[in-house]
Design goal:
The complex is a heterodimer of chains A (about 375) and B (about 270). Chain A has about 375 residues and is α+β, with helices and mostly antiparallel strands. Helix content of chain A is about 25%, strand content about 35%. Chain B is built from 11 helices and no strands. The radius of gyration of chain B is 23 Å and the shape is globular. The interface of A and B includes residues 90, 92 and 141 of A.
C-alpha cells in the first residue's frame, strides 16, 4: 500500500491513526492517509462508512478523539473551521439565499481579509471560471441546480483554499446534468490545480474524478489505490463487491493447474481454473469475475486453454443502450455477462449458452467467514 | 353511484359550513363598523338612517380615551421591544443547545399562553405589591412583557428551525467566525420569524384586557381597559368607533406582516428545501 502519512513538503493533508467515536459507535477507526499537492483523492464507501465524519474532521466541525490531523504540516488540534482555509462544497450547495451570487462568492474573500479592490476582480474571475458571467446580481433561488452548484464551486475556490473538499458533489443533480458537470468539475479543478478530496458513495463519481481512491467501510480504510488498481485488483471481498459488479464463486482449492493457476472446487461442484492465491494452497477461497470479462457463446463453440466454461440458460437480456446485460442461470447460480451492444445475431431469452472467462481475469480473495 | 352522491353531499355540507363560519365571524364586526358611523346621538336599531363621523370626533375629544390610547401605544412599543430582545436571545440559546428536557423548557417558556391571563394578572399584582412596585406603568410593563414574550420566542424558534445548519457551516468554512456567521446568515434568515413575532406581540399587547385590568391604577390604564370602564359608566358608540380603529390597526399590521413574509419568500426561494 502507499506510504500513508509520511510528512513531506508536498503533503497537503495527513491523517495519522485518527479515531472518532459517537457514543458507542466508532465512526472513524484508526484511519491514516495522506494527500499530496495537486492530487484528487476520493473517499468512497457506503453510507455510515465514516467518510462524512472524515470530511467533518478535516473541515473542523468535529474533533478527533485520537490521532493527528495535519494540514500543510501544521497540526489542526483545536483549530476552528475558520482557522483552516479548507474549502467545503456542500451536497446541497448551501448558498446564502439572501445574498446575490456575487455576494456569495465574495463572502469568503471578505472574511479572509482580501483588499476591497481585489475582491470585485476575483469575483469576476471566478464567475468566468465557472462560466456564469453576467449572473452576479442573481439570487441563488433564481438559478437551476447545475448553476447553483457552479456558484458554490466558485465560492469555495475564490479564497484559494489549501484543500478543497467536495461532499457528494453531483448527487443532487439529475443523471444527464451530472455527466456534463462531472467533466466540467474535473476541468475546473485541474485548471486551478487544487488539492481535492471527493467524498462520495457513487463509484462512478469516484472513478471518474479521482487520481486515487480510498475505499472505506465501517470506519476503516479497506484499500487505497488508483481507480484501475481498485477495480482490477480489489484486496478484500468488500471492495470487489462495492466497486462495479462481480460474479462470485466460493469453494476450496483442489489442485495446481499449470502456470500460476490452480483449481477451485466450488461449493456447487464445478472445477474452475483460477490464479493461484499463493501460499501452501488449500482452505476456503472466493473467486470473482467481472461481467464484462465474461463472454456469452453458443453451446459447443470452441474455447482456448486456461478458459473456464459454464453452461447455462439465458434468463433475461437487458438492453441498456450502450451495452447488453445477460442474466444467465446455471449450476453456479445466477451469473451476469455484459457485452457491447453490437449489430448482429443475438442470443435470446431461454437459449442455452456457455459462459467463457479466462482464469487470469479472476480475482481470488480469502473467503469471508459467513 | 351512492358513494359519489355522498361525496357531493359532503362537499356541499363543507361549503355550507364555510359560509356559516364566515357569516359568524364577519357579521358582528360588520355591525360594529356600521354603527360606528351612525349619525344618531343615541343607540338606535340597524340600519342607521344617516352616517357621520361624530363618534370618532367624540372619541378624539375625550381625554379619558386618549390617555388610554397613549398608554397602550407606549406600553406596546416598550413591551414588544423588550420581549423581542428577550425572545430572540432565548430562542437562539435554546435552539443551539442540546440537553435533556429541552422540549420541556420550551414549553415552560411558552406557558404564559396556557395560564389564564386573569391568573397571570392577579399573581403579578400580588407579587409586585409584595415587592413594593406600586407604579402602575411599571406593573403593566411587567405584565405585558410576560404575555408577549411567548409569541416572540415561538416565532423566532420557528424562524430558526427553517435555517439549514449547512448554511452556518458554509459561512464558518469560508472564514467567518461564529459571531459573524450569526449576523451574516442566521439573523437575516430568521428575521421574518422575528418580525412576525413582534407584530403578534404588538397586537396582543394592544388587545389585552385580562392582565391589564388587574395592574392598572387610577392614572395609568390602557385603551381596552378604558373602553370597558366607560361601557359600564355611559354606554355610547364611541366604543364602536374605537373598535373600528383597533381593527384598522390590526389590518395594517397584517399587511405589514404579509409584505415581510411575502418579501422573504421571494428572496428565500428554494432555501428551506433540502
Amino acid at each position: 500500500m502507499t506510504d500513508a502519512a509520511q510528512p513531506s513538503p508536498e503533503t497537503v493533508i495527513a491523517f495519522r491513526d485518527v479515531s472518532k467515536r459517537f457514543g458507542q459507535t466508532v465512526a472513524v477507526d484508526r484511519v491514516s492517509f495522506s494527500v499530496g499537492a495537486g492530487e484528487t483523492v476520493s473517499l468512497l464507501g457506503p453510507s455510515g462508512c465514516g467518510k462524512t465524519t472524515t470530511l467533518r474532521l478535516i473541515s473542523g466541525f468535529e474533533d478527533p478523539d485520537e490521532g493527528v490531523i495535519e494540514i500543510a504540516g501544521e497540526s489542526m488540534v483545536g483549530k476552528r473551521p475558520y482557522e483552516r482555509n479548507v474549502g467545503l462544497l456542500f451536497q446541497h450547495y448551501a448558498l446564502f439565499p439572501h445574498m446575490t451570487v456575487a455576494e456569495n462568492i465574495a463572502y469568503g474573500l471578505k472574511h479572509r481579509r482580501w483588499p476591497k479592490a481585489e475582491i470585485g476582480e476575483r469575483v469576476d474571475e471566478m464567475l468566468r471560471l465557472v462560466q456564469l458571467q453576467g449572473f452576479g446580481d442573481r439570487r441563488p433561488g433564481q438559478m437551476s441546480g447545475g448553476q447553483q452548484q457552479r456558484v458554490a464551486l466558485a465560492r469555495v475556490l475564490a479564497t484559494r483554499p489549501k484543500l478543497v473538499l467536495l461532499d457528494e458533489p453531483l448527487s443532487a443533480l439529475d443523471a444527464k446534468l451530472r455527466e456534463e458537470l462531472r467533466v466540467e468539475l474535473k476541468q475546473i479543478l485541474a485548471a486551478v490545480g487544487s488539492t481535492t478530496i471527493v467524498v462520495t458513495h457513487d463509484q462512478d463519481e469516484a472513478m471518474s474524478l479521482a487520481d486515487r481512491i480510498i475505499v472505506m467501510n465501517r470506519g476503516r480504510i479497506e484499500q487505497q489505490g488508483t481507480p484501475d488498481e481498485i477495480y482490477a485488483r480489489p484486496l478484500t471481498p468488500f471492495v470487489a463487491a462495492f466497486i462495479g459488479r462481480a460474479n462470485w464463486f466460493h469453494g476450496r482449492i483442489a489442485a495446481a493447474a499449470g502456470e500460476g493457476l490452480c483449481q477451485l472446487a466450488t461449493d456447487a461442484g464445478t472445477m474452475l481454473a483460477i490464479p493461484h492465491p499463493g501460499g501452501a494452497g488449500g482452505g476456503s477461497w472466493s473467486a470473482c469475475i467481472r461481467p464484462e470479462r465474461v463472454v456469452v457463446m453458443a453451446l459447443g463453440a470452441a474455447g482456448g486453454a486456461g478458459e473456464n466454461r459454464l453452461p447455462g440458460q439465458i434468463v433475461d437480456v437487458v438492453n441498456m443502450g450502450a451495452e447488453l446485460h445477460y442474466i444467465v442461470d446455471g449450476a453456479e447460480g445466477r451469473l451476469m455477462a455484459v457485452e457491447p451492444n453490437r449489430a448482429g445475431p443475438r442470443v435470446r431469452r431461454g437459449d442455452r449458452v456457455q459462459l467463457l472467462f479466462r482464469a487470469d481475469d479472476c480475482v481470488v480473495l480469502p473467503r469471508k467467514p459467513d | 353511484m351512492s358513494g359519489r352522491a355522498l361525496d357531493n353531499g359532503l362537499r356541499l355540507l363543507g361549503l355550507v359550513m364555510i359560509g356559516v363560519i364566515v357569516c359568524f365571524l364577519v357579521t358582528p364586526i360588520f355591525v360594529t363598523a356600521v354603527m360606528a358611523f351612525d349619525a344618531r346621538p343615541y343607540l338606535g336599531p340597524l340600519p342607521p338612517p344617516a352616517l357621520s363621523l361624530r363618534w370618532f370626533a367624540k372619541f378624539f375629544s375625550d381625554d379619558y380615551f386618549l390617555r388610554g390610547l397613549g398608554t397602550s401605544v407606549e406600553l406596546a412599543v416598550l413591551s414588544v421591544t423588550v420581549s423581542v430582545c428577550v425572545g430572540v436571545a432565548t430562542a437562539i440559546a435554546v435552539e443551539r443547545a442540546s440537553f435533556r428536557g429541552k422540549e420541556a423548557l420550551i414549553s415552560f417558556f411558552l406557558s404564559p399562553l396556557i395560564v389564564p391571563p386573569v391568573v397571570t394578572g392577579f399573581a403579578l399584582l400580588l407579587f409586585l405589591s409584595k415587592m413594593g412596585v406600586i407604579n402602575g406603568f411599571a406593573r403593566l410593563l411587567c405584565g405585558h412583557i410576560i404575555i408577549t414574550a411567548p409569541y416572540t420566542i415561538r416565532a423566532t424558534l420557528a424562524g430558526l428551525s427553517g435555517i439549514d445548519v449547512s448554511l452556518t457551516e458554509a459561512a464558518l468554512s469560508l472564514g467567518a467566525t461564529e459571531r459573524h456567521a450569526f449576523w451574516d446568515v442566521t439573523f437575516p434568515l430568521a428575521r421574518t420569524g422575528i418580525v412576525s413575532g413582534a407584530i403578534f406581540a404588538f397586537a396582543v399587547s394592544m388587545d389585552d384586557v385580562a392582565v391589564s385590568i388587574m395592574l392598572t391604577d387610577a392614572n395609568t390604564y390602557t385603551l381596552p381597559v378604558a373602553l370597558i370602564s366607560s361601557m359600564r359608566a355611559n354606554f355610547d358608540l364611541s366604543i364602536a368607533a374605537a373598535s373600528v380603529m383597533l381593527m384598522l390597526l390590526t389590518l395594517a399590521l397584517i399587511v405589514v406582516l404579509d409584505k415581510f413574509v411575502g418579501l422573504n419568500r421571494a428572496i428565500g426561494q428554494g432555501v428551506f428545501r433540502s
